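Moderator note: this is an archived Q&A kept for reference. The question asked for a predicted structure of one protein chain; the sequence and the answer are reproduced below.
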Amino acid sequence: MTEGLRDAIGQGRLPTGSALPATRRLAEELGISRGVVVEAYQRLIDEGLAGARTGAGTVVIAQGTPAGEPRDRRRLLDRLRLPLPPADGIDLDLSPGVPDLAAFPRTGWLRAERAVLAEVSAADLGYGDPGGTPRLRAELAAWLARTRGVRAEPDDVIVVSGVAQALGLLAQTFHAAGTTAVAVEDPGSRGARDQLAHWGVRSVPAPVDDEGVRVDALTEPVAVLTPAHQFPTGVVLSPSRRRALLTWAAGGGLIVEDDYDAEHRYDRTPVAALQGALPDHVAYAGSVSKSLAPGMRLGWLVAPRRRQADLLAAKHATDLGNPALPQLVLARLLASGDYERHLRHVRTRQRRRRDALLAGLRTHLPGARVAGVAAGLHLLVMMDGDTPDTVLAAQAAAAGVLVHPLSWHRIAPGPPGLVIGYAAQPPDRLASVGERLADAFTGR
């Protein structure tokens, strides 16, 4: 009832100065208790929309703000370049970066959550350390040391909401310290560039070739890189470039190492993180977005110690810290070995999916070249000819297949290519992608 009256006032149907019906009469007309009407009038008075006047009853004294017109959320998200569901007509979404959500370990997570709830203390549920719960920071430090060669104590780990927040916190501290431009890979993550730009940090492109980023092209004091599996080309930073990059950083540079999908290497053990070789000059970031689910909003940032105070202050100002219970559940999964068992299971699934996609592409698009190593959740397919990749992507979309044109992830112009994610689709559907793309491109 209060909402109806509030809307009537906001839309002008009850203009300023109009008297509301007597409570008893309105209750009789509506067939409700007089107390309900009295309570509704009192809420309008408390909100400053109505007032009780002697001899005049309850009178409208202010106009509320009318509700806005319904908005097209898809158009809003698209204008902001934010993720949104596939448009109508798309029946095969191959967007890069979308993980295998069907593989989320529901049983293991539920088992770990029940165990955590059985032993959690009242102190665990307080505001706590904005950098994360001690248990998760300790487990992450040990797990990252074992699997990625990261050198960190538990107090060096800041639990964040994902790599995006890690970049946001770093960008805030860069900008506050006077660094307003950083080097980024080109092609590289468009999302990372957008995150940096939101905090006032400009992206300066450094070209990427078959050996990774061109270290001789780094012109800024900070470089944001994906050395273990470059996005989107899929190449691994070569040993010579790795040595050159570490020499560059030791001379006063800072590497922001986005280790976004290092756990998904299929042909061999992934190369160790750069952070382990030069911890005082590398800010290392990762998350469970590609291994569990992006909706978990759990990640980590290991930064040089001289930068940690500013980063913790920015984290506290942003959200006071991540939710405690998911942190404690992830800590338990790490401690029990369930997380690593889950990763082995996911790697097996993803290898089959990648193989199915590759087989179809080689059969039906023999002129296309697949770049990069056997890793990750996407392929980069370099296309022959002069057709812009935006046109190729539009042709694929018209045939119901959603892929990214490589140019979306470029700053400088370059050869056409398609970035194709495969993690979220089963092998039988991926096997048909090559034929569907070939038909779309030829108009068959």
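Archived answer notes: The chain has a mean pLDDT of 92.
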